[in-house]
Design brief:
Distance between the termini: 20 Å
CATH architecture: Alpha-Beta Barrel
Largest sheet: 8 strands, parallel, barrel
Shape: globular
Length: about 240
């Protein structure tokens, strides 16, 4: 896979309450960014209309709904996501190989059926709010975060997925283990001048994530909570370019 252009590798997270909020944010970012992430909050509030809004504004959409269910149910969800024309979607890798295989096959079949490009299908490894203690004590996985991320990513590749979602701290081992073609999408991006990482336990700066080998960065609050979202996005893009 050819690396995305700089303007395409930064995705703003539209974690807002309504279509009106999403529309206003996209208006402010138009001409600066060309891709966005639509997750559970906005999709629950507005449904497919959120994807339609973003696409009509010229934004490519990463549908971040983290499907996790029996294989048949996930296959149906991926089929409908593909129909919406998203360029990327994800499922929880912890759902198992059969579920991920069903997702990959559904995306390929639906893309042909609806005459749209096949979306990239990613496996979510370990969400960025978990650290080693939480993974062990709360989730019941007595492993390091890095080891578990690598295990799930390898399982995802064997099942036919295109890449994974992982924190900045796992990018380098993932790239070394899975090669250049494996797509790595990284949330948990924070700027150096931000005092606290909020609810994110495993974070890095944009430059550090790009240098480590991330293909895409998903950034929410450092852009959406900024007084000037477009200016904040430009600063992140500039840092990515320098990296």
């Amino acid at each position: 896979m050819a690396p995305p252009d700089r303007s395409e590798r930064l995705l703003v997270a539209l974690d807002v309450e309504s279509l009106a909020d999403a529309s206003a944010l996209l208006d402010r970012l138009s001409g600066v960014l060309s891709r966005c992430k639509i997750g559970s909050q906005l999709y629950t509030a507005a449904g497919p209309a959120a994807v339609e809004l973003a696409r009509k504004r010229g934004f490519g959409v990463f549908l971040d709904l983290k499907f996790h269910d029996i294989p048949n149910t996930v296959a149906g969800a991926v089929r409908e996501a593909t129909r919406l024309g998203v360029f990327m979607l994800n499922v929880h890798a912890s759902g198992g190989a059969a579920m991920m295989r069903a997702a990959a096959e559904a995306a390929t079949k639906a893309a042909t059926e609806f005459g749209v490009p096949r979306p990239l299908c990613l496996g979510v490894t370990v969400v960025t709010s978990l650290d080693r203690r939480a993974l062990d004590v709360e989730v019941g996985v007595p492993s390091t975060v890095e080891a578990h991320v690598l295990h799930l990513a390898r399982l995802a590749r064997e099942a036919g997925l295109d890449g994974c979602v992982a924190s900045p701290r796992e990018i380098t081992p993932l790239r070394l283990a899975l090669g250049k073609q494996w797509v790595i999408v990284t949330p948990g991006i924070r700027m150096l001048d931000r005092a606290a990482p909020d609810d994110q336990a495993r974070t890095a700066t944009p430059a550090a994530a790009i240098r480590a080998g991330a293909d895409y960065l998903v950034v929410g609050r450092p852009i959406t909570a900024a007084p000037d979202p477009a200016g904040a996005a430009r600063a992140i893009l500039e840092e990515c370019g320098q990296a």
